[in-house]
């Protein structure tokens, strides 16, 4: 664990989630710096891991870190929804598991030049440095109404209108630190997180289309023909968790008739598997003490079993 530049959250739970995968391919949709990937490789010598990331810095590090595993690991660069969809088509039944850790890595947060932190001297937040849209365009060019929508929907900011108005009045901003200082007085105090965190989260989600990426990944899994598959998704806030929970619930339903239907006419055989985690798994006490960023992590697991 000391060799990993950031601690992968829910590491024990992830290993346990894929314990039933005795052989085959596990796709790590958000490989990052290889934390979960290396643990899965170490704990199951019969697995092959394909890691996906769009950050060239993470890919360069993980390529070096994982090279000792030889042909048991492959790395693809790109948006995980697109690459995973291609892999599902390409590898088919060879795939036994899909993991996605939705959110920014601790190392990205700590690299101030990436602009993810409220203390950053830049205003970027792109997970893919080659992407066209950055936080600077969102903050300095979006309309007030668009900013208000993003803050309310993606950050669940209670006074989104006032915050958006303040941003428009005081822009342009050159750094995340400057933005944070401008809105600090508007944010609720007394919580465990920095007052500006939810605003930064909302902007980051917009820049990287994180909810769209998650939805498209789930779409690709749902429309696949893979008969046996473990799906494990780690989320860090309620919007992501709600998307995963609702989709897993849908996948586990046999009857999809309207609630007011007098009788079942759908055949009552629409479930493609079962929910493994009725409630999401969260970090244990020792992990919380060692890694404060794990406190908001939630893991949901679904097992696909198609006839």
The SSE string, one letter per element, is HEHEHEHEHHHHHHHEHEHE
Please report the number of helical segments: 13
Strand order of the largest sheet: 3-2-1-4-5-7-6
Helical/strand content category: alpha/beta
Spatial shape: globular
Instruction: Please mark out the parts with pLDDT under 50 across 5 or more consecutive residues, or reply none.
Output: none
Oligomer: single chain
Beta-strand share of residues: 5-15%
Straight-line distance between termini = 40 Å
| Total strands | 7
**Biggest sheet overview:** 7 strands, mixed
- Average pLDDT number: 91
C-alpha-based Rg, rounded: 20 Å
Helical content, roughly?
A: 40-55%
Walkthrough of the structure:
The chain has 307 residues and is of the alpha/beta class. It is 41% helix and 14% strand. The chain contains 13 helices and 7 strands. The model has no long low-confidence stretch (mean pLDDT 91).
How do the strands and helices of this protein lay out in sequence?
Elements: H1 11-17, E1 24-28, H2 35-43, E2 47-53, H3 56-65, E3 73-77, H4 80-91, E4 95-101, H5 106-110, H6 135-141, H7 144-155, H8 160-170, H9 176-183, H10 197-208, H11 210-222, E5 228-235, H12 238-251, E6 273-275, H13 285-290, E7 298-305
Parallel strand pairs: 1-2, 1-4, 2-3, 4-5
Antiparallel strand pairs: 5-7, 6-7
